[in-house]
């Protein structure tokens, strides 16, 4: 998964679990960047009567580093409150919800948005409203209209939305976590040879699941540091993005007469930059620690990027399929290509016309060169497919980040730093076999880009 349930402790706290992060120059408004942070993963659409929502006791933040030190220069902070309109009803709604002020809607969520920059906090908006969850055709008959009402354009130039969306991340979880099986190659698996006679059809395990998204579209001038020019080769054009969730240090449970209370400073419990970093790179014993630290501390984990466990596992799981990768892994030579992609950005000179380097500080951030315009014909393999506007240059909603990451780990990107290395033929084709076409809810062409959430009436279970 991108970051769904990626660490032992956060798996027990889904409301604070950062599951996906997207950052891209807006295709419909190229003078802005769109940042989308997803939380509360793997939502069953029919999960009532207590439908999913953000946590009132969680501080959600999207951070932007524009000088390469691994610390935030700009932060957008979202804080939520929930109101019940009818304390005597157990129902989420008592009739159709046709507007955000509908009297039929019993449990509503609001949020404030604060921008933190140059050490100062500026509250941009207060009591903006989230739309309801997509219950079904009788309860939420015109859901797109509710989303329109819950999408706000602020006087400071930002556009913002917070609420439920369809999960756009596509991944074959059932296969990957069954001893690293890739269904298109399952008959070549060391154990699969005894079970499978031919390749299999991939399954998108997150399809027909929902998430809660925080999306903000920001003018480029509000995220980039001041500079005389912003060309594709200029460091000032590159930003690093990550998201986090924090809770108060102390929580005291009420005794029936008193309500629960939280106190103390906020402590980070979840974060996410590059997809799959904590999921695949960080070892199990350090995953919770990684979630608690800022990106500026990621030099602690550089050894796991330089020698990723998966690079050694692929030749073992698929004998004779990755002989060149096997030799590379056994040589214990640090993977400078992965360090560049994940921790420092790709320096100029490795890929024609492209760089998203932020400097020498090793930090897991989703790096975006904001001077590279959106692609008219996006390639799902991003930079690996010759599309410089895609992952790992930021991340768009349709980018096939699992295949890109697998191919990079399998050795496709090693020639960027070692011209003598020849990737295995399989490395150029390795994939779980999924694409954006395997997401039932179509992506939108404009803000907030992720598709309409699945409703519980028509999607009673993820496997239906």
Automatic annotation (TrEMBL):
This is DUF4331 domain-containing protein. It comes from Micromonospora coriariae. The lineage of its organism: Bacteria, Bacillati, Actinomycetota, Actinomycetes, Micromonosporales.
């Amino acid at each position: 998964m991108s970051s769904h349930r990626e660490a032992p402790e956060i798996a027990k706290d889904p409301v604070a679990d950062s599951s996906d992060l997207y950052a891209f120059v807006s295709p419909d408004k190229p003078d802005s960047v769109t940042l989308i942070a997803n939380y509360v993963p793997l939502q069953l659409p029919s999960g009532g009567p207590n439908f999913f929502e953000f946590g009132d006791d969680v501080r959600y933040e999207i951070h932007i580093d524009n000088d390469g030190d691994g610390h935030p220069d700009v932060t957008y902070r979202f804080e939520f409150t929930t109101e019940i309109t009818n304390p005597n009803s157990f129902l989420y709604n008592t009739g159709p919800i046709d507007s955000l002020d509908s009297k039929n809607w019993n449990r509503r969520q609001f949020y404030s948005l604060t921008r933190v920059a140059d050490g100062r906090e500026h509250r941009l908006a207060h009591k903006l409203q989230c739309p309801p969850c997509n219950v079904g055709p009788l309860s939420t008959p015109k859901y797109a209209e509710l989303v329109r009402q819950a999408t706000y354009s602020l006087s400071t130039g930002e556009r913002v939305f917070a609420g439920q969306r369809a999960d756009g991340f596509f991944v074959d979880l059932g296969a990957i976590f069954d001893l690293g099986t890739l269904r298109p190659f399952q008959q070549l698996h060391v154990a699969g040879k005894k079970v499978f006679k031919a390749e299999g059809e991939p399954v998108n395990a997150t399809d027909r699941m929902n998430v809660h998204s925080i999306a903000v579209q920001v003018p480029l001038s509000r995220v980039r540091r001041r500079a005389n020019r912003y060309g594709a080769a200029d460091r000032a054009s590159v930003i690093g993005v990550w998201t986090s969730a924090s809770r108060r240090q102390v929580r005291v449970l009420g005794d029936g007469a008193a309500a629960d209370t939280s106190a103390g400073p906020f402590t980070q419990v979840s974060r996410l930059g590059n997809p799959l970093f904590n999921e695949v790179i960080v070892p199990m014993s350090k995953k919770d620690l990684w979630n608690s630290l800022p990106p500026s501390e990621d030099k602690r984990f550089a050894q796991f990027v330089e020698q990723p466990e998966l690079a050694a596992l692929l030749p073992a799981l698929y004998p004779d399929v990755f002989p060149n990768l096997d030799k590379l892994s056994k040589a214990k030579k640090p993977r400078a290509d992965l360090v560049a992609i994940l921790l420092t950005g790709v320096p100029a000179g490795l890929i024609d016309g492209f760089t998203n380097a932020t400097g020498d500080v090793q930090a897991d951030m989703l790096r975006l060169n904001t001077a590279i315009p959106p692609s008219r014909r996006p390639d799902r393999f991003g930079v690996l497919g010759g599309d410089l506007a895609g992952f790992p240059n930021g991340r768009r909603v349709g980018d096939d980040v699992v295949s890109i990451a697998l191919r990079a780990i399998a050795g496709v990107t090693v020639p960027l730093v070692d011209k003598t290395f020849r990737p295995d033929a399989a490395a150029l084709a390795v994939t779980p076999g999924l694409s954006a076409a395997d997401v039932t809810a179509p992506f939108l062409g404009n803000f907030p880009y992720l598709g309409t959430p699945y409703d519980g009436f028509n999607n009673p279970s993820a496997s239906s």
